[in-house]
């Protein structure tokens, strides 16, 4: 119930988006048609957004941010000021970009350390990775790339309102993993036979303080989880 309330609250903040966009247009001295031209979107779509009939995605917010240096936080929620006195939470955006890099390594490269790290995040045991050499080595090897920037902004916008940081991390990783899983090349033989694709088992040992185990292939549950405690 708490998670549903938070989703409704995040949705309500976008109800005032047309008013904030009107301020942006007035500040820049341009029309809706000119805005559409400059960000490469149709005038009809911009008109629907301005009337509150449609909710734009990450591409729209990034385009407006790049074009006018407007705070995405302010544009989406009204927090701070138009030009970003209280702007993007850079530490969260940077963390998301690292999480995306980990998800890419786990899914696309089948990296055992990345898969093990996803298990710790899923179980809320990330603190146990802080001094582990495997994970330190992983974070030194991987690096966020600009090709994933749009995905990072989309996840940032979608999970900004989360109040539980552990659940937020878990849901962000689930979304990132699902993104890469959906884009993996299809194993035609596995699809025909119905048999799962064989993967090399991970041999990274996870020490959670209470037990030790070996990371397997069940690295993450793709279903987002709520902020409320059961």
TrEMBL record:
Q: Name one GO molecular function term.
A: DNA binding
Q: Where is the HTH cro/C1-type domain?
A: 21-75
Q: Name the source's superkingdom.
A: Bacteria
InterPro entries attached to this UniProt entry: Cro/C1-type_HTH (IPR001387), Lambda_DNA-bd_dom_sf (IPR010982)
Annotated PROSITE patterns: HTH_CROC1
SMART domains in UniProt: HTH_XRE (SM00530)
Q: Name one Pfam family in it.
A: HTH_3
| Protein name, entry field | Transcriptional regulator family protein
User: What species was this sequence derived from?
Assistant: Rhodoferax antarcticus ANT.BR
